[in-house]
C-alpha cells in the first residue's frame, strides 16, 4: 500500500488518521492534537475496522497523556483512566478497542516509574507495539489463510477487512493479498455493504490499488452469484468472536453465511486473537451498535426515503458458529469444535 494511504500515521510525535469517510473521492488526513479528535474520528468512522480502531485508540491515549497537565503519578493514571473510558465508549462492538485500551492501562499499572514524562514514553512504546504486532499478525494470518485458497479462486468478501481496517495489510483482504503475492490468480467479489458502502468505497479501492482483480456487486446480488457457481469461498473479518465461535461482523455478514451454507461454499473468518473474546460465551452477549437512521435514509446528503419513516440500523450482526467453516488467526487455522479449539489457542496468549 502506498505510504501516504495508511489508515494511522504516527510521525514527528503527532497522530494523523486517514479520513475514510472521504474515500475514494479524496485522501485527507485528520490531525489529532487532542484525544477528543480521535474519539470523534472513531465515532464517525473516519477510522474504522476492529484492529484499526484499537490501534487508533492506543495512540489516542498517548495524545490524551500529553494533554494531562503536569501531575504526580497517581493523578496522571486516574486522569488517563477517564480518557481511556471515553475512548472505549466510542464504539461498542469491536472488542479490539477495549482490548487495546486495557493493554495500555495494564502496561502503565505494571510500570514502576514515577516520572510522568517517562510514563508517557512507555505508553507511546506500547501503542507502537500494538500497531506493529497487528501488521505482523495480519501477515501471519495471510500466510496461513492463503493455503486455503486454490489458484483461480473466486472469493466473496463483505465490508472492508483490509489494510484500511487494520494497522496494515488486512485480515480477510490480507489472506487474499498473500495468495495474490504467491502468484495465485484470485478474483475478488466485493459486496458494496450497505448502508455505508465500505465494500464499494474501500475494498474495491484497496483491491484496485493492489492490482488484485475485483468485481463490485450490490449486497442483494450475492445469492444469485453463488447460485451461478461463481463463488468458491467467502472470507470476512470480525469485530468480536465469542468463546463458542459466534462471529460479530458488519451487518449483512450473517446473510452471506446463510447463503454460503445453502450453496455448500466454505465460509472463512480471518481475525487476530485480539478479536476473540473468551469472556462471552455466545454471540447473544455481544453488544451490537445501532447507528443514526440517517445512514439508511440518506445518501450523499440526499434523502432516499420518506421523512418520518421508522428505521432500524444495526451496524453489525452475529453469524452463528455452525455457519463458520474455519477461523484464520495468526496462530493458525482453527476448525470446530470452536469452544475447545479457541480456548486452546487463546489459552496460551491471553
Ligand atoms: C479487519 S476489520 C474487521 C471488521 O471490523 C470489519 O469487517 C467491519 O465490520 C468493520 O465495520 P466498520 O463499521 O466499518 O468499523
From TrEMBL:
Pathway this chain belongs to: Amino-acid biosynthesis; L-methionine biosynthesis via salvage pathway; L-methionine from S-methyl-5-thio-alpha-D-ribose 1-phosphate: step 1/6
EC primary class: isomerase
Segments passing through the bilayer: none
Entry's EC annotation: 5.3.1.23
Pfam families, alphabetized: IF-2B
Sites annotated Transition state stabilizer: 159
InterPro entries: IF-2B-related, IF-M1Pi, IF_2B-like_C, Initiation_fac_2B_a/b/d, M1Pi_N, NagB/RpiA_transferase-like
Listed GO MF terms: S-methyl-5-thioribose-1-phosphate isomerase activity
Entry keyword set: Amino-acid biosynthesis, Isomerase, Methionine biosynthesis
Highest taxon of the lineage: Bacteria
Gene Ontology BP annotations: L-methionine salvage from methylthioadenosine
Active site per the UniProt annotation: 239
Binding site for substrate: 48-50, 91, 198, 249-250
Catalytic function, reaction form: 5-(methylsulfanyl)-alpha-D-ribose 1-phosphate = 5-(methylsulfanyl)-D-ribulose 1-phosphate
NCBIfam families: eIF-2B_rel, PRK05720.1, salvage_mtnA
Functional summary from the UniProt entry: Catalyzes the interconversion of methylthioribose-1-phosphate (MTR-1-P) into methylthioribulose-1-phosphate (MTRu-1-P).
HAMAP family from the UniProt entry: Salvage_MtnA (MF_01678)
Family assignment from sequence similarity: Belongs to the EIF-2B alpha/beta/delta subunits family. MtnA subfamily.
UniProt name for this protein: Methylthioribose-1-phosphate isomerase
Species of origin: Desulforamulus hydrothermalis Lam5 = DSM 18033
